[in-house]
């Protein structure tokens, strides 16, 4: 409904979106991931309205807002005792910018709160150990605005990084265009995952992405959508996210709104 109203003011089209979504819900598998369901639902919005990126103006505003505080975030990293850990926390703080979950957030205050917050899952030692022996990194992006925060962490990793984006606009997930607007092309090589979903679906990714995913020394996955899609994959992945719903929190055995640096082992 929210995406539909961003895309059109035509009440007949809104009704059509709801009708088609209702039909979809009747038939969707209980085993489908949120990314798979989201891809189908937002596909209906595009099909009915003809608008490919309903959230475009909001994404542009988020990039503008996060770029405005970027210099302050860089100072926080530079002045910290553990620059890598601070950069990780800032990257996770950016994960609050999720239009698929909530529109009510204050970027600056949420960043400040998360920097003071303890991790519910904290596989930092394993992360540093893997980073030390890593020659290449695949960094799977999540939301626009958050992507500006990712730039800070990528710079602090001090290794060659390939940053994966969505193939087409889906909610506020970062596309190639969004990544360039965020300045990520300055610190990483951009690659298209091939996914048209709000989260990676491996069997819908490009062969090039799958090759990277399977062979890269270190994979960093940002956000809840990517966690939902990759949490049972068959390789080591480090997940950086904030838990944003009771289902994920219960699955991980933590409280909701927790921050997480989790190593997924084979």
Provide structural commentary.
With 266 residues, the protein is an alpha/beta fold. The protein has twelve helices and seven strands. A seven-stranded mixed β-sheet has the order 1-7-6-5-2-3-4, sandwiched between helices. α4 packs antiparallel against α5 and α5 packs across α6 (107-116). The radius of gyration is 18 Å and the shape is globular. The protein starts with a helix and ends with a strand. The model has no long low-confidence stretch (mean pLDDT 90).
Q: What is this structure, in a nutshell?
A:
With 266 residues, the chain is α/β, with parallel strands linked by helices. It has twelve helices and seven strands.
Draw up the topology in text.
Elements: H1 2-7, H2 11-27, H3 34-49, H4 56-78, H5 83-93, H6 107-116, E1 119-122, H7 124-132, E2 137-140, H8 146-157, E3 161-165, H9 176-181, E4 189-192, H10 207-215, E5 218-222, H11 223-230, E6 237-242, H12 246-252, E7 259-264
Parallel strand pairs: 1-7, 2-3, 2-5, 3-4, 5-6
Antiparallel strand pairs: 6-7
């Amino acid at each position: 409904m929210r995406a539909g109203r961003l895309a059109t003011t035509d009440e007949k089209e809104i009704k059509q979106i709801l009708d088609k979504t209702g039909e979809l819900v009747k038939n969707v598998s209980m085993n489908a991931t949120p990314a798979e369901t989201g891809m189908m639902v937002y596909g209906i919005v595009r099909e009915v309205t003809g608008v490919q990126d309903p959230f475009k103006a909001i994404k542009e505003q988020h990039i503008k807002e996060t770029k405005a505080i970027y210099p302050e975030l860089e100072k926080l990293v530079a002045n910290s005792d553990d620059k890598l850990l601070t950069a990780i926390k800032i990257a996770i703080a950016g994960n609050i910018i999720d239009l698929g979950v909530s529109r009510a957030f204050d970027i600056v205050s949420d960043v400040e709160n998360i920097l003071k917050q303890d991790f519910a899952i904290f596989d930092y030692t394993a992360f540093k150990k893997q980073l030390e022996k890593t020659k290449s990194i695949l960094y799977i992006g999540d939301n626009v605005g958050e992507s500006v925060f990712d730039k800070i962490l990528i710079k602090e990793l001090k290794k060659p990084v390939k940053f994966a984006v969505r193939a087409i606009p889906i909610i506020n997930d970062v596309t190639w265009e969004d990544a360039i607007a965020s300045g990520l092309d300055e610190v990483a090589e951009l690659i298209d995952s091939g996914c048209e979903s709000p989260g990676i679906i491996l069997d819908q990714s490009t062969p090039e992405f799958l090759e990277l995913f399977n062979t890269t020394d270190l994979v960093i996955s940002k956000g809840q959508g990517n966690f939902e899609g990759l949490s049972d994959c068959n390789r080591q992945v480090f997940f950086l996210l904030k838990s944003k719903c009771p289902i994920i929190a219960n699955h991980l055995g933590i409280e909701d709104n927790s921050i997480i640096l989790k190593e997924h082992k084979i």
